[in-house]
Write a structure and sequence with these properties.
The protein is an all-alpha fold. The longest helix is centred in the last third of the chain and has 58 residues. The mean pLDDT is 80.
Length: 276
Amino acid sequence: MATNIGMMDGAYFVGRNEILAWINARLHLDLSRVEEAASGAVQCQMMDMVHPGVVPMHKVNFDAKTEYDMIQNYKLLQDVFTKLKINKHIEVNKLVKGRPLDNLEFLQWLKRYCDSINGGLMNENYDPMERRTKGGRERNVKASQKSSKSLQTNNSLNPGMGSNKMISGVKHGKSGAGVDSSVEIKTLTTELTNLKLSVDVLEKERDFYFAKLRDIEILCQTPELDNLPMAVAVKKILYAADDKDSALAEAQEIVSRSINVDETQSSGDDELDIYA
């Protein structure tokens, strides 16, 4: 089975139109962009199709919009990979951002994997729409059961209250909680947006300075400069371990020795010129 696939494998040369056609045909969907599969639900159902019964479809959220909900889907998918002993790490943080290239590469890998199961033959008895509907029903039933148990617990804790008073209290409580939740969600959304912007700025700065350091490294590695003291000193700093504080001091020592040697040689040349 294709679990470890190199980046030069033909799987990664499959175009997005072919990937979308494959998903839409297998799962009876109508995706027009690969980033529409960023929630992880499509990937979960693909694994459900090739490995029936392994994916807990009632936990898969096909309506996932927030990164939190998407991450839950990918946790399910990673658990499935673990159960099937599939050695594939999912780059969740990249996929949930909806970047087309990251999602395309993962879907390309997924298609290659699915094609390696049973020769890529489609399970004719698999009804993707029925599986999605059933999963949604089970999820709603479980949510209703939890809500019912919660209400029963509240009623048992307050047996002396009248029904009208209890209903009124529930309504007021729900209204107040709804307002507080809305404000909290709005605040957290704003904070999350600001954090994303900060991360994007930091990533750009990191890439910028890394490119500069890489240029310096390439320059120092050229045959003409490779053994020069200054190049050796610069590489000493570039290749120093993170916890090595003496790299700068060692580099300065190399440069200092080089200067002393040059001065000694210059002084010797001057003396020879005098005697000449």
